[in-house]
Amino acid sequence: MATNHHTKPPRRAGSKGLGIQLLMILCILMPVMVLFLLPAGGILGGGLLFWVGLLVTFWLISMLSGPIAESEPVMTARVLTSDDQPAVVKEVMDVGLAEEVAGVRIFRGRLREPAASVYAKLKHALGEGAAPSVQADEQFCASIVLLPGPVVDAAAEPHGSPWVNWLLFALTVVTTTWAGAAHQGIDLLAEPGRFGAGLPYALGLLSILGVHELGHYFTARHHRIRVTPPYFIPVPFALGTFGAFIQLRSPAEDRRALFDVAVAGPLAGLAVAVPTLLIGLRSSAIVAPPAGAAAGVMHGGADVGSSVMLALLAKLSFGPALLEGHLLQLSPLAFAGWLGLMVTALNLLPIGQLDGGHIARAMFGRRAGETIGSVAMWTLLLLGLFVWPGLLTWAVIIFFIAGRGAPPLDDLTPLTPARRWLGYATFAVLALILAPLPHTLWGAAGIRCPYM
C-alpha cells in the first residue's frame, strides 16, 4: 500500500487527461486480476509471473503518467545580454551567466539579499508575465528561473471530472469490505448477506487513508496550491487496496509550504490510526504461539515486540495481561489500525515523492534530500533481501511511484525552527513504528519475552 502526493510536470496534454486516468485504472486492476484468477494458487503461487506482472503494471503506470512529448521543435539555447535581463533580476543578483532555453530564462550568480526577499520582489515585479523560481546552483550559488506564464497555466489547469474519484472510492469500499470478510474466512460471493463482517476493517482502513489524503488536500488548498481530490486504488485481493494519492497541479511556493503539505497527511492519518488500533485491541486477544507456521498477522498473531509503537499501544490496552503472552490475534478493526501505522511508516520513508521524501527535501535541501533518499531506498531493498522478503514488494512499488517531484519555487529559504523540530519528531514516529522492541526492554515493559 502506498500513499503519496505527486506534483504534475509543467507541460502535459490536458485533452487526454480523462483517457489517461481510465487507462491508469485499467493498468492497476487488470494485471492483478489476471494473476489473482490464475489456477493452482493464483497470485500466491504465481512466483516469477507475479513479479513480472507487478513490474509491467508499474512500468505502464509510469509511462502513462509521465509527460507527453511535445510536437513543437526544441529551441536552442542562447546567451542573454545585459539588455535582455529584467531590471529586477539585476537588482537582486550579481548575474554571472544568463541564457534562454526553450523560452525559459535562467540567470546564475550570487544573490544580493535573502532568497525569500528575492522571490517576493521577482513575483511582484514580473506579475502574470512570468513565474519566478529561485533554486540552488552548485557553480554559481543560486539561479533564478523565469518560466513563461502559459507554462504555469498549463501546470495549474483545473481538475477534471470528479466522478473518477468517486468511482474509485466506491470500488475500494467494495474491495476492502470483501477483503475484511475474507480475512475472517467469509466468501461474500457465496454469502453476500454477511457483508457486515467486512465493514469494521473497510471503514477503519478507509477512514485512515481518507483522513491522510484530506490532510494533504486541505493543507495544499491553504497554501493556494492547486490539488486534485484523492484517488483511491482498489484491488480485488489481499488488503483490498493499494492506498490512495493526490496530485499537486501547481508547485509549492517555498520549502515551508512543501513541508506543511507533506507532513499534514501522515500526522492526520496517525491521529486516526492510533485510536482505531486502541479501540480494535479491546476486541483482540492474546494467543499462544502457533505450533506450526503463523497464519498471518490476524490469525497467527501479531508479535507485540515487532514494533515499539505496537508494544506501547498494546501495553496501554492490555496492561499486565501481556505477561501471559506476546502474540495478539487482531480483530478486523485492530488489523485496520495496524495497517494504518504501516501506511504511515511507509509514507514517511525519506524517498522521492513519498511524504518523507518531501519532508527531507524541505528540511535539508535538494542534494542532501536526494542522498538520504538513495540510502533509504538501498536500505529498504537490502532489508527485503536479507531480513523480511515482504519488504521487496514495497521496494518495487516505491521504486516506480516515488520519482522526483517538482521543486518549490523558492527552494533556498530554510524552514523555521519549529518546522524542523516537527520534522525530526515525525521521523522519530517512523522509527517507533518500524523498529522492533529491543530484547533487553521486554521485561522492563512488562511484556512476556519470547527469548527467555
TrEMBL record:
<keyword id="KW-0645">Protease</keyword>
<keyword id="KW-0809">Transit peptide</keyword>
<keyword id="KW-0812">Transmembrane</keyword>
<feature type="transmembrane region" description="Helical">
    <location>
        <begin position="375"/>
        <end position="401"/>
    </location>
</feature>
<protein>
    <submittedName>
        <fullName>Site-2 protease family protein</fullName>
    </submittedName>
</protein>
<feature type="transmembrane region" description="Helical">
    <location>
        <begin position="261"/>
        <end position="281"/>
    </location>
</feature>
<feature type="transmembrane region" description="Helical">
    <location>
        <begin position="201"/>
        <end position="219"/>
    </location>
</feature>
<keyword id="KW-1133">Transmembrane helix</keyword>
<feature type="domain" description="Peptidase M50">
    <location>
        <begin position="202"/>
        <end position="371"/>
    </location>
</feature>
<feature type="transmembrane region" description="Helical">
    <location>
        <begin position="48"/>
        <end position="69"/>
    </location>
</feature>
<feature type="transmembrane region" description="Helical">
    <location>
        <begin position="293"/>
        <end position="313"/>
    </location>
</feature>
<keyword id="KW-0472">Membrane</keyword>
<dbReference type="GO" id="GO:0006508">
    <property type="term" value="P:proteolysis"/>
</dbReference>
<comment type="similarity">
    <text>Belongs to the peptidase M50B family.</text>
</comment>
<feature type="transmembrane region" description="Helical">
    <location>
        <begin position="333"/>
        <end position="354"/>
    </location>
</feature>
<feature type="transmembrane region" description="Helical">
    <location>
        <begin position="20"/>
        <end position="42"/>
    </location>
</feature>
<dbReference type="InterPro" id="IPR008915">
    <property type="entry name" value="Peptidase_M50"/>
</dbReference>
<feature type="transmembrane region" description="Helical">
    <location>
        <begin position="231"/>
        <end position="249"/>
    </location>
</feature>
<feature type="transmembrane region" description="Helical">
    <location>
        <begin position="163"/>
        <end position="181"/>
    </location>
</feature>
<dbReference type="GO" id="GO:0008233">
    <property type="term" value="F:peptidase activity"/>
</dbReference>
<keyword id="KW-0378">Hydrolase</keyword>
<dbReference type="Pfam" id="PF02163">
    <property type="entry name" value="Peptidase_M50"/>
</dbReference>
<dbReference type="InterPro" id="IPR044838">
    <property type="entry name" value="EGY1-like"/>
</dbReference>
<dbReference type="GO" id="GO:0016020">
    <property type="term" value="C:membrane"/>
</dbReference>
<feature type="transmembrane region" description="Helical">
    <location>
        <begin position="421"/>
        <end position="442"/>
    </location>
</feature>
